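Sharing a chain and its predicted structure for anyone who wants a worked example. Both blocks are below, sequence first, tokens second.
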Amino acid sequence: MTLQSMTGFARVEGSSGRYRWAWELRSVNGKGLDLRSRLPQGHEALETDIRRLAGERLTRGNLQIGLSVTVSENRVEAVLNRDALAAVLALRDELGPDVLDPAPLRLDTLLSIRGLVDMREATDDAEAIAARDTDILDGLERAITALTDMRTTEGAALRRILEEQIERIEDLALQIEADPSRSPEEIARRLEVQLATLMDTTNGLDRDRLHQEIAMIATKADLREEIDRLKAHVTAARELLSVGGPVGRKLDFLAQEFNRESNTICSKSNAVAVTAAGIELKVVIDQFREQVQNLE
């Protein structure tokens, strides 16, 4: 599976019968899939299908979906108020030919009677509306595909960046591991110096206490566990990138673990070179985590 960024944009236009429509989709970073839609009046029933279609293709991101619909051909129909017409005809019969002209009523006369004929925009039947909505939803599917294509393209670029950062994290871990300050001889030398300092500055230090101090110094000098965990996290991050799909949260967790180990290395370091490498490690990890925030 490919990686996807959570950032993308898509616009798809189309027509159905006398309607023209356009979808606009925008997505940015988000903890989950937060969908907000803006639909024109009369199209609220599409909301359920919109959420279903988006949920089938996307798992994370703040997603804004907008639909615009315009009528390219206005149709007007005349609606006769039959009750009003019946009342007019009844009044004509009641008054009779002595009062009114017995000639048939002219159309222009009928149209001049207020409320008798109402001119209004023609409405579509249920079949036409269903066909229109089907076309609009087909357009939404194409828009979601275009959005995911853009997110996939950005995801591929992010993958290259993340792979370079993971490689740099591994290089720094190996650099720390190979630093001369971690050799048994160097550790022994530092212990001798620190032990001599303890003996010179402390009177009457018993043997048990002395052993405890030496053990604490040796433990502080050992970065084996931190280095091994960094290597394990590097392997896990590479596996996630190779698998692909929505792995952003898992990589974010690994970034936190990377940071935890780098903090420990810096706090335990008693060599300038190791401290410098640990600080650079923290910088690369921060950059890694910042990029991971963009992944689905």
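Comments welcome. The chain has a mean pLDDT of 85.
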